[in-house]
């Protein structure tokens, strides 16, 4: 089970509509397909979605760092040498999506080699997760209509509402319209992507106090240390650290410093190996956990549900598993299907994610 080659293949698939949030917007999924080859002929796969406005990575940067730095460091290692892989990749600062995709592709190859699913290798708690859907910026009527369509078509009843890009009163009005339009049986939470100040966040949460929100996520910047502590101390819902808590050390700082009370785990930025560390830390600290989404395609969503379903803690809450519905196409040979508000772990060894070779050829950008 020796690693013989690591490929980084850039590909681009347009979104059906632009995805807008406080820190930026995207029109095309310009991601990187990572394939880890072994001497047994097994190939593990994963997806790296760059988010330059959040983590500083670009598609070209991910390809370059994998080809020039990371691949030479892991070729020759066994699929079982995951701690060695982690240590070697950690020598390079940043590049979370690139590192994570290599890590997850190695886990996929390991599962395929052992004829065991990644979810079983990780913990095997369940085989599915409930789904939450992200609602980006639009007019209130359009956002309510999208939520209704997701509920009627896919059975989704939990929605993450992007806020922080418009004036506070407009954002809170949207959330109120969603509550009034969808009823009390639907779960709602808000994500500001650091778009408000602490004072604006406090005002917004007061205006939405009667709406029964589940969480508030990254409403204001974490580097406003005192303002954020002041805000979190007055909230009566969990405050999720997302992009401010990428590593277990970040989680420790945010939680012990009083700047957050819950955490989002995104396999696209911490893979499976580092996500395990964050999960165990959160479990020890008694934190709420949600499985987040980095606007992943279907392959990335397969990775998220594989990890989230592996543990009781990460499967308690609906995971952000539906952003692939906004893409016009994908690379999987068999598309994902959200039914009755749930996404199941793919059957089969590893991640159970087989790619369509024709689609890979069509959408890749390096040929």
From TrEMBL:
Gene3D superfamilies: Enolase-like C-terminal domain, Enolase-like, N-terminal domain. InterPro entries: Enolase-like_C_sf, Enolase-like_N, Enolase_C-like, Mandelate_racemase_C, Mandelate_racemase_N_dom, Muconate_cycloisomerase_anti. It comes from the Bacteria. Pfam families: MR_MLE_C (PF13378), MR_MLE_N (PF02746). Residues 140-238 form the Mandelate racemase/muconate lactonizing enzyme C-terminal domain. Keywords: Isomerase, Metal-binding. CDD domains: MLE_like (cd03315). Belongs to the mandelate racemase/muconate lactonizing enzyme family. This is Enolase C-terminal domain-like protein.
